Amino acid sequence: MAIIGQGSFSASYSSANPNPGSASNQAGAQQIIQIPSGVDWIKVYNYTKAGQNGLSSVYFNGTANAFAGYEFYWQRGMAAGTGMVKYKANGAATVDQDTLIAGGFTLYDPSGQTPGALPLLGSPVATTATTNATQPVVSTGNTAGLQVGSVVRLSSTAQTDVNGIDMVVSAVTANTSFTLLTSTNALATAPGAIGGAGFYRIVNANPLFYPRRRYVTNITKATNAQVSTAIAHGLTPGQAVRFSIPTVSGMTQLSSSPFNNYEPCTVVQVIDDYNFTINIDTTSFTTFTWPTIAQQPSDFPQVVPFGEDTAGALASPYAQTPTIAGQQIFNTNTGILADSTVNTGFLGMILGSGGNGTALTTPISGPAGTVHFTSGNVIDVTDTMYWVAGKSDFGV
Question: Phi and psi for 47 in degrees, rounded to 5?
Answer without folding.
Answer: -60, -35
